[in-house]
Design goal:
Rossmann fold, eight-stranded mixed β-sheet, 13% strand, 351 residues, 48% helix
Length: 351
């Protein structure tokens, strides 16, 4: 029996359709047979997989209102393991047309009884309301996945949704459980996003998925090309986020084995022992001359300065003598200069 997951939140613009389409595509990429059911009259999930709802004659509307077998409305997609029951704008009037149907809140449950055996997962995209269509999805589902936008207003509607889930679980579907709360449009740069994420985790605890869907341009562009994000840009952050979400769900359900626990102590590899550098042969210390007695050293040091001083004095005296001789010669020349000048003047006067 396949597992039915309803993606529901009565607040619009929180990423229900984006999550339903890309989660289903990611499960199919993991080779799990998956069926995506679009119960939103806007048919955004239908067009998001490249199907034009205006050209269809058999949709979820005919399944719920006219009672045709759901297999007749099932369509193939680009992914081998993903099929879809599309929606149509006619679904807007389904609530009025089903008002006199007995057990109208269980119409989808009865229709999916035969389909559950064919698929591992059935993902239902719910409309942004808590009307009869959402009530049918919650009654037929095994669990409900709640996308929560990381903004203030997204928190206000959670109380009403949880109250509706509690009523459905009490009166219509006792096995209904919360699959998890998914934080979407998360921006780590914004303080508000961090505050909302912290508040949601504080309230729901382990029910909050570890995976967070961050804001990504590729996620917004993919529907305009009629493709899930993994077919539009397989390397984008959006693809990684939803593949991580699918992996987390598969591990919770025991389909995918948990990664082996790593023993940190044994995982630390000790470095190999470093070999000691080759030892060089020690050279014998140079032989020092034997130390002389202290008396000889003192006697030698006392005699050397005296000889040096005497020699220096003689040399200095010689230099001084030379200097004095030069000085006397200069004095004689200076004294003879006036006499020579006077002699020259006398000679000039005679001439």
């Amino acid at each position: 029996m396949g597992k039915v997951i309803a993606v529901a939140n009565q607040k619009g613009g929180v990423g229900k359709t984006t999550t339903a389409v890309n989660l289903a595509a990611s499960l199919a990429a993991a080779e799990q047979p998956t069926l995506l059911i679009d119960t939103d009259p806007q048919a955004n999930a239908t067009s998001g997989l490249g199907i034009n709802p205006q050209q269809l004659t058999k949709t979820i509307y005919e399944v719920m209102v006219d009672g045709i077998p759901p297999a007749e409305a099932t369509m193939k997609t680009e992914l081998a393991y993903l099929e879809m029951i599309p929606s149509h704008i006619n679904l807007v009037g389904a609530e009025i047309e089903m008002i006199e149907v007995v057990h109208r809140e269980k119409v989808l449950l009865k229709a999916l009884e035969a389909m559950r055996r064919k698929y591992t997962y059935v993902v239902i995209d719910c409309p942004p309301s808590l009307g009869l269509l959402t009530l049918n999805a919650l009654t037929a589902a095994d669990s409900v996945l709640i996308p929560v936008q990381c903004e203030y207003y997204a928190l206000e509607g959670l109380g009403q949704l949880l109250n509706t889930i509690s009523i459905v679980k009490k009166h219509l579907n006792q096995l209904l459980d919360i699959e998890g709360v998914l934080l979407t449009m998360y921006d780590s740069r914004l303080r508000l996003s961090n505050q909302v994420a912290s508040e949601v985790r504080r309230y729901f605890g382990d029910k909050v998925f570890q995976t967070i869907i961050t804001r990504n341009v590729r996620l917004s562009e993919a529907p305009s090309h009629g493709k899930p994000v993994l077919l539009y840009d397989a390397l984008s952050i959006g693809t990684k986020n939803y593949m991580d979400l699918a992996t987390e769900i598969l591990r919770r359900d025991g389909i995918l084995a948990e990664p082996p626990a790593v023993d940190v102590a044994s995982a630390i590899i000790s470095p190999p022992p470093q070999s000691a550098p080759p030892s060089l042969p020690r050279q014998a210390p140079a032989t020092e001359p034997p130390a002389e007695p202290a008396e000889k050293i003192l006697a030698a040091s006392a005699s050397r300065p005296q000889a040096t001083t005497a020699g220096s004095a003689q040399q200095a005296g010689a230099e001084t003598g030379n200097g004095n001789g030069n000085t006397r010669q200069q004095s004689q020349d200076s004294a003879a200069a006036p006499a020579q000048q006077q002699q020259q003047r006398d000679i000039s006067s005679l001439g």
